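Hi all, posting the design record for the shared folder.

TITLE: backbone redesign
STEP: 1 of 1
STRUCTURE INPUT:
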């Protein structure tokens, strides 16, 4: 594949993720991985969408919703790496995750690590009487006119995307509330505190699958109609999730694709759970008969 060169302002046609230079230049971030720095830039980009949608908490702080599945999909990485990158950002104080329970995804607060230095810069600029300030104020009408035009163009370009994104988020929230109730997430989290991350990943996977617009979905190597998969997932309950967790705990072989493994386990859970419990019951009865027979007087 032969690519063309950039000419003039052609490079400005792209949209970009902005990663603060400080993450690469300051000593305190030298041990932060490059992938984590990239993820921070992606989370910063998502912040602008939250601001426009007025996603603020009671204290006026901006938050975003960016799940492990979102990280995997954006960075094209595995589950373990996505989890590690989020924890790495937390350890460096660059993000804060607030768990909401009931199967709802965490609220993610992207932290402003340069807030103090920014305040100092603003203070210095206010006290600066250099000619730079005069130049900036020479033609305020013209400057505002250009800015207004650019903002209008930007809004026209992004509004359809924002509208579609908002609709997707609302749909996700409804699905998250549904699975939170139907799977009795509060109960599962109390029963399996060590599997909290897995439980949230299962809910996110169910939501992603049921929210997809694809006509077919690959389950255990076969293409299934999306409506069939969605219908089966909507009928799952807490017992099915407990069975899936049990299968995960008993599995001794390495799982190469956790997402596909969970999809297949969740899809087959209603059938395999009954067969598994029946088989266990038959085994227990057979062992009991052997025990009674061996203890019987000859």
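Okay, here is what came back for every position:
SEQUENCE:
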């Amino acid at each position: 594949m032969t690519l063309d060169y950039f000419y003039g302002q052609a490079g400005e046609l792209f949209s970009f993720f902005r990663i603060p230079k400080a993450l690469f230049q300051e000593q305190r971030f030298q041990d932060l991985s490059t992938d984590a720095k990239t993820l921070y830039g992606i989370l910063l980009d998502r912040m602008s969408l939250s601001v426009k949608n007025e996603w603020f908490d009671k204290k006026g702080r901006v938050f975003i919703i960016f799940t492990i599945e979102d990280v995997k999909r954006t960075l094209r990485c595995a589950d373990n790496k996505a989890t590690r990158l989020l924890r790495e950002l937390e350890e460096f104080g660059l993000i804060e995750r607030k768990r909401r329970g009931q199967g709802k995804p965490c609220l993610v607060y992207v932290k402003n690590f340069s807030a103090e230095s920014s305040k100092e810069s603003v203070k210095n600029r206010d006290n600066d009487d250099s000619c730079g300030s005069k130049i900036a104020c020479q033609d305020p009408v013209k400057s505002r006119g250009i800015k207004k035009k650019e903002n209008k163009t930007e809004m026209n370009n992004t509004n359809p995307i924002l509208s579609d994104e908002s609709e997707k988020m609302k749909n996700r929230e409804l699905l998250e509330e549904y699975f939170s109730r139907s799977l009795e997430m509060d109960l599962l989290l109390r029963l399996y505190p060590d599997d909290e991350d897995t439980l949230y990943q299962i809910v996110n996977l169910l939501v992603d699958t049921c929210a997809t617009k694809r006509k077919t979905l690959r389950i255990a190597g076969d293409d299934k109609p999306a409506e069939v998969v969605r219908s089966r997932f909507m009928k799952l309950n807490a017992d099915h999730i407990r069975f899936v967790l049990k299968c995960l705990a008993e599995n001794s072989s390495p799982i190469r694709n956790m997402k596909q493994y969970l999809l297949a386990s969740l899809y087959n859970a209603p059938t395999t759970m009954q067969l598994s419990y029946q088989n266990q019951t038959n085994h227990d009865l057979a062992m009991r008969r052997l025990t009674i027979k061996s203890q019987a007087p000859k």
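COMMENT: The mean pLDDT is 78.
Let me know if anyone wants the other runs.
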